[in-house]
Each structure stands twice: as structure tokens, then as C-alpha cells.
């Protein structure tokens, strides 16, 4: 005897979210710019006056 079966096949595609990567990159680049800006300020104005 032949049995009929209903079979559902799912195809899942893994999507990469490039916008999240871009936002994270901009965020960390901004942190680096702020860090080096503060470092530049300390070297020029705080330590520069001591020497």
C-alpha cells in the first residue's frame, strides 16, 4: 500500500545585517576620535605648560 504524506520543506537564509556593523564601526571610531582628542589636549595644554 502506498501512503500519501504532506511534507513541508523550509529554506532558511541567514541574513547579515550590514547596518548594525556600520553603526558599531561609527560608534567605535567616534570613541577613538574623542580619546585622541582628549590625549592631544592633555599633551598640548597640561603637559606643555609644565615643561
UniProtKB/TrEMBL annotation:
It comes from Halobacillus locisalis. Keywords: Membrane, Transmembrane, Transmembrane helix. The keyword Transmembrane applies. This is Cytochrome c oxidase subunit IIa family protein. The chain crosses the membrane at residues 21-43.
